[in-house]
Amino acid sequence: MKFNILITAFPFVNEYKRLRKLFINSNFNIKVVKTTQSLKEKDLLKLVENIDGILCGDDEINEKVLKKANKLKVLSKWGTGIDSIDLEACKKLNIKVYNTPGAFTESVATQALALILNFNRKILQNHNNIQKGIWNKLEGLTLVKKNIGIIGLGNIGLRIAELLVPFNSKVFGNDIKKISKKKLKKFKISFKSKNFIYQKSDIIILATDLNDTTKHLINSKLSKLIKSKPLIVNIARGPIIEEKALIFLLQKKIIKGACLDVFEYEPLTKKSKLTKFNNVILTSHNAFNTKDEVNKVHLNTYKNLISGLKK
Q1: For the chain, domain boundaries
Q2: 20 vs 234: CA distance, rounded Å
Q3: Which residues are CB-neighbours of 252 under 8 A, at least 6 positions away?
Q4: Which of 21, 89, 141, 263 is the most buried (most CB within 10 A)?
Q5: Structural contact between residues 40 and 60, judged by C-beta atoms closer than 8 angstroms
Q6: Helix (H), strand (E), coil (C) string for 123-184
């Protein structure tokens, strides 16, 4: 029996010439679809009929798409986040869903720190000035004794806290889940409310999952809560920040700036107002992208697909 496989995860698709050898001895019909980030419902509806398994990215896999996928047995998500998949509908339709938990902890945590150091020491600005022939001295900031709030204390949030220990920062943390006192002590985190973090932090790092409680966590209401002009760093999920609200906070100088790897709408367009600020650093949803961890996820996503089809 041959299985029809759809591959849409763009990191896997980009390396498919190398990775196709994984499928050589398998009884599969493979359809590979190129995309810059993810596929929307309208695109998927044209592709999913008679498909047995999907190796997917952050595609809009909702109930309508799943019902159209009349033969679908397994969704193997490339990476960690599965918020783009309707899990309730998968359960009803008996479709297995796999991901790679904790896949990019080191990659994303170090990206967060890199963005903060870049912003505080004005490295990108200094580099750009030198390329323009401007040899000036830009005063920066260290992280010593700075108040740093981390919202989301999963693997990535805890690793960020651990990386901050040598900098002698004061780290506040928040999560809807209970975090053990042992972990908080190990990573020198003071557990605080989100409001406390908004009011007291010099830097706010978003490291949480996207769910009903975190969508638009950063919104226009924060203008009344924020007190210390923090830098906002998002290496989690784009819709955690309401983009219009962030632009307002930047325009009104309520926050010091922003470092963003993810966006409410991706890919970010040249027309986005976020590209016009000189106190914003942008990366292209690329925090995950380190060679070692990407290769591990390629292999694990493939194994999950095979395992799901065999069950």
Answers
A1: 3-103+291-310, 105-282
A2: 34
A3: 223
A4: 263
A5: yes
A6: HHHHHHHHHCCCCCCCCCCCCCCCEEEEECCCHHHHHHHHHHHHHCCEEEEECCCCCCHHHH
Angle at 281 between CA 276 and CA 283, to 5 degrees: 110
158 vs 207: CA distance, rounded Å: 9
Cα atoms found within 13 Å of the Cα of residue 259, Cβ hemisphere only: 24
DSSP-derived secondary structure letter, 273? G
Sequence letter at residue 295: N
Residues 173-224 pLDDT 10s: 999 999 999 999 999 999 999 999 999 999 999 999 999 999 999 999 999 9
Note whether 223 and 249 are within 8 A (CB). yes
Residue 183 is encoded by which pair of tokens?
């972990």
- pTM for the model stands at 0.89
Instruction: Indicate left, alpha or beta for 82 from its phi (over 0: left) and psi (-120 to 50: alpha).
Output: alpha
- DSSP code string of 279-292: TEEE--S-TT--HH
Bridge partners of 30?
5
Half-sphere exposure of 297 (CA within 13 A, CB side): 30
CB 226 within 8 A of CB 256: no
Q: Write out the two tokens for 275.
A: 């590209």
Residues 3-103+291-310: name the CATH superfamily: NAD(P)-binding Rossmann-like Domain (3.40.50.720)
Q: Residues in the chain with pLDDT < 70?
A: none
What is the distance of C-alpha 102 from the center of its chain? Answer: 12
The reply to whether omega before 11 is within 30° of 0 (cis) is: no
Q: Could you tell me the CA-to-CA distances from 35 to 39, 235, 286 in Å, in that order?
A: 7, 21, 15
CATH number for the domain formed by residue range(s) 105-282: 3.40.50.720
CA 201, 207, 211 angle in degrees (round to 5)? 115
Identify the three-state secondary structure at position 264. coil
